[in-house]
Write a structure and sequence with these properties.
Layout lengths: L3 E10 L2 E9 L4 E5 L6 H9 L6 E6 L2 E5 L4 E2 L7 E4 L11 H11 L4 H14 L15 H14 L4 E5 L7 H17 L4 E5 L2 H7 L2 E6 L2 E6 L1 H6 L4 H7 L2 E8 L2 E4 L6 E2 L7 E7 L5 E3 L9 E13 L2 E6 L6 E4 L1 H7 L6 E6 L5 E4 L5
Parallel strand pairs: 3-9, 3-10, 7-8, 8-9
Antiparallel strand pairs: 1-2, 1-4, 4-5, 5-6, 10-11, 12-13, 12-15, 13-14, 15-21, 16-20, 17-18, 17-20, 18-19
């Protein structure tokens, strides 16, 4: 079975070291999600064999690709890895079909067989009609699909996608995300998606690995990451409110805020990260009665329409983000500076220990 086992250690500069462990099972898509400069490109280079490890080990389908301790290193062209780069790296002097054939003919496969395989993949991505064109004649979306066809044509054991949608405009990215999801689903091996866009990660990946400053700071499903972000960066990506505080039998004392909260989670004590999803917070014109155990009076700070959702940012004492419908926004007559009451159930206040119980 084709699985990826990797521990990548690289020192890129005196001040930056990449040290991540990442395993991907056959048929699984993992997104490596992080800001620019976090180490994503270095991870791609190490897995593809463009740079050798300083320490660590990479194996694919049981075959060691890089291990400094035993001086084993497999060059890129022998790794059985299909790569889709951000800029696609298509050869402008070759036709589309020759681009797709390139990896096959480079391995000594006869042109007749290579052409048949290329034709199959051009059909699979719906671009048979552009087979004789050259890359400068293609749209961004077409180029992305050609790069994907070229990567899949070699029947790789690992599919590595380095920001495959970053160079596209918003509408094309939405359309191509759907196409990419279909082809990822049909690829039997492990797939690693490198991205800085949380939408790509949440929609395309089975699991998400968050990378910050060369380290993986969180690994889990999109739902786990949305509900329990481990760092402020992850919370911002997920749209989740993240607070720091202490949990004492369900009573939360917040750092940097005078208001306290209640959580139903009494299993975690001491210093905690507190996550509250924007959709879990309700807004009221009058003090609410009933089941919510957390209520406080505040004001509307800002209002930002986001299509089917409106993001409300609250003022003091808790400057949280709240997502409600445009209809609710209008019905409440919300406007910056308007006094409101906010409420959230204790069961919607999630806590994660940061390790200290002092």
């Amino acid at each position: 079975m084709s699985t990826l086992r990797s521990h990548i250690q690289l020192r890129r500069t005196r001040d930056f070291e990449l040290d991540i462990a990442l395993d991907i099972e056959a048929g699984e898509t993992v997104a490596l999600l992080g800001p620019n400069g976090a180490g994503k490109s270095s991870a791609v280079a190490a897995l593809a064999g463009l740079v050798s490890l300083d320490y660590g080990r990479v194996s694919l389908a049981g075959r060691v690709l890089d291990d400094p301790t035993t001086a084993e290193f497999v060059p890129p062209e022998q790794r059985d890895i299909g790569v889709v780069f951000q800029d696609y790296l298509l050869f402008d002097h070759l036709s589309v079909v020759d681009n797709v054939m390139f990896g096959l003919t480079s391995r000594g496969i006869r042109r007749t067989a290579a052409r048949a395989t290329a034709d199959h993949w051009l059909g699979a991505v719906g671009l048979e009609r552009v087979a004789t064109r050259r890359p400068p004649e293609l749209s961004g979306g077409q180029a992305q699909r050609i790069a994907l066809a070229r990567a899949l044509a070699i029947d790789p054991k690992l599919l590595l996608l380095d920001e495959p949608l970053a160079a596209l405009d918003v509408q094309t990215r939405t359309d191509l995300r759907r196409v990419l999801a279909e082809h990822l689903g049909s690829f039997a091996g492990p797939r690693l998606l490198i991205t800085h866009d949380p939408t790509d990660a949440f929609l395309l990946a089975d699991r998400i690995a968050i990378i910050e400053d060369g380290q993986i700071t969180q690994l889990g499903t999109s739902d786990e990451i949305r509900r329990r972000p481990a760092t402020a960066y992850v919370a911002a990506l997920a749209g989740t409110n993240l607070l720091a505080g202490r949990n004492n039998n369900g009573a939360l004392t917040l750092k940097a805020h005078t208001t306290s909260l209640q959580t139903s989670d009494t299993s975690v004590s001491g210093d905690v990260l507190i996550a509250v999803h924007p959709t879990a917070i309700a807004l009221h014109l009058h003090e609410p009665q009933g089941s919510p155990r957390n209520t406080w009076q505040t004001t509307v700070g800002s209002i930002e329409p986001l299509g089917d959702t409106t993001r409300i940012t609250l003022g003091d004492p808790l400057p949280l983000g709240v997502d409600i419908t445009p209809g609710s926004t209008a019905a409440l007559g919300l406007a910056p500076g308007k006094p409101v009451w906010a409420s959230v159930k204790a069961t919607e206040v999630h806590v994660t220990s940061t390790g200290s119980t002092n």
